[in-house]
Design goal:
The protein is mainly α. The protein has one domain. It has four helices and two strands, in the order ααααββ. It has a two-stranded antiparallel ribbon with strand order 1-2. α3 packs across α4.
Length: 111
């Protein structure tokens, strides 16, 4: 998993809540994500990085911001002080839609 995708997954786990309203990363890690969900996350990250390569600068921060921005959290590309580049990346991230993570009956995380 590349740095961008790892940061994306980490942001997904700490910003998503389980049924007990606790962040998923309190109990779960990347290894608990269902293979098909992890594959979709990796695919989305790869596509975004390829499409927006000219505007991405820091893989760790950008992966984190991709998750936050696409899901409408209160932080992301638009509030980094990037100006027009931040606005562009925000619009580009919104194309991917939002994802809600949840824990399945098998204890794996799905989205």
């Amino acid at each position: 998993m590349d740095t961008f995708t790892r940061a994306y997954v980490e942001a997904a786990l700490w910003s998503s809540l389980g049924e007990d309203e606790q962040p998923l990363d309190d109990v779960y890690g990347p290894e608990d994500i269902a293979p098909e969900t992890l594959a979709q996350m990796s695919e989305d990250c790869a596509a975004f990085q390829e499409a927006e390569a000219a505007d991405l600068e820091d893989p760790e921060r950008d992966g984190h911001d991709f998750w936050l921005t696409r899901n409408g959290h209160g932080a992301g590309f638009w509030d980094r002080g990037y100006g027009p580049r931040g606005e562009w990346l925000t619009k580009a991230a919104h194309v991917y839609g939002s994802v809600d993570l949840y824990v399945g009956d098998d204890g794996k995380i799905y989205g």
